[in-house]
Amino acid sequence: IRGCLIAPMLSGGVETILGVQRDSIFGPVVMFGLGGVFVEALKDVTFRVAPFGVEEAHAMIREINAFPILTGLRGQPPCDLDALAQALSALSIFAKANESTIASLDVNPYVVSDAGGVALDAAFVIEPRV
């Protein structure tokens, strides 16, 4: 271990997942859906070939069936969808720029709230493409 990151406790927001998988034909493909246990239970995710811009990321966010959760339900504030779209677009650009070494990447959860978004955990699989 070369270091550590200490961050304040976070409460509220919606857990989402941002992921990348390198496909042998399409190259890096970005995934988005609800995170935490919901990604496994609901399998409510959407995919795009990287790279893409913020407008396409907004379309991607609106494709999941759980989209209404992100808009604020039962008095919850709506999530910052612009920050989420920026994160997805930036991830897609990063994935494309590093497609020769990143085999997969999962950011789960990426918590998004009315104040923006923050990655709480991430895992990378580094594997040079032959």
The coarse silhouette is globular
Secondary structural class: alpha+beta
Low-confidence region ranges: none
Taking the sheet with the most strands, its summary is: 6 strands, antiparallel
Mean pLDDT: 92
Q: Give me the strand/helix succession.
A: EEHEHHHEEE
3D structure, described in words:
- The chain has 130 residues and is α+β, with helices and mostly antiparallel strands.
- Helix content is 28%, strand content 34%.
- The chain has four helices and six strands; from the N terminus they run E-E-H-E-H-H-H-E-E-E.
- It has helices at residues 38-42, 54-63, 67-70, 81-97; strands at residues 14-23, 27-34, 45-49, 102-113, 116-119, 122-126.
- Strands 1, 2, 3, 4, 5 and 6 form a six-stranded antiparallel β-sheet that branches.
- Strand 4 and strand 5 form a beta hairpin.
- Helix 2 crosses helix 4 (81-97).
- The protein is globular.
- The chain starts with 13 loop residues before the first strand and ends with a strand.
